[in-house]
TrEMBL record:
A GO cellular component annotation in the UniProt record: plasma membrane
Source species: Shigella flexneri CCH060
Localization (cell): Cell membrane
Key words, A-Z: Cell membrane, Membrane, Transmembrane, Transmembrane helix
Family that this chain belongs to: Belongs to the Smp family.
Entry-linked Pfam families: SMP_2
Encoding gene (name): smp
Protein name: Protein smp
InterPro entries xref list: Uncharacterised_Smp
Length: 191
């Protein structure tokens, strides 16, 4: 039982640690991107092509579904990734795009006198739910293997010790202690 509880604890602990790690890594990535985009936003007209290239690289084959850079008034400068409208992505109309597995991160693009704009990232956390399910399946298989090994141990023990009384059965704490062990009787008769 202790081993099965340990397996359950391992599974739950793994899942609890995973979510804060994802959040921290995503925020760190967003800060790094804003540091790269900030010099391109300092001019009167932001360099849309270079910002677009950064966003394309960010969303190419990753868990980032889409990314967008907005100026300080909230006007879109560049966007990359899935073509789902922000209004739909944020479910402002009550319709949730892509289920409940998306996470939005908005990071300000810092300037000397305040924010120059904002970076918005949409993370796909559905794969994390899938991986958590795989961890649960592995934990269940581990439990099954522990129960199976316990059953095999009981069957082997009963098979190997069937009909034989051993010295441990002569313990004064057992009710059968007064009965002699058959092996001793046979060796006494031979002498």
């Amino acid at each position: 039982m202790a081993l099965m509880q340990g397996a359950s604890w391992f599974s739950q602990n793994h899942q609890r640690q995973r979510n804060p790690q994802l959040e921290e890594l995503a925020r760190t990535l967003a800060r790094q991107v804003t540091l790269n985009v900030a010099p391109l936003m300092r001019t009167d007209s932001p360099d849309e092509k270079r910002i677009q290239a950064i966003l394309d690289q960010l969303t190419d084959e990753s868990r980032i579904l889409d990314a967008g850079v907005y100026d300080e008034q909230g006007d879109l400068i560049a966007r990359s990734g899935e073509s789902v409208e922000v209004r739909d992505r944020l479910a402002l109309d009550g319709k949730k795009a892509g289920g409940y597995f998306n996470q939005q991160i908005v990071e300000p693009i810092a300037g000397k006198n305040g924010p120059l704009g904002y970076l918005r990232l949409t993370l796909d956390t559905h794969t994390l739910a899938t991986e958590a399910q795989q961890v649960d399946n592995t934990t269940n298989i581990l439990r099954l293997m522990l129960l199976l090994s316990l059953a095999i141990g009981v069957v082997l023990t009963r098979t190997l010790l069937q009909g034989k009384r051993t010295r441990w059965q002569q313990s004064p704490f057992l009710l059968t202690a007064s009965k002699p062990v058959p092996e001793e009787e046979e060796s006494e008769k031979k002498e």
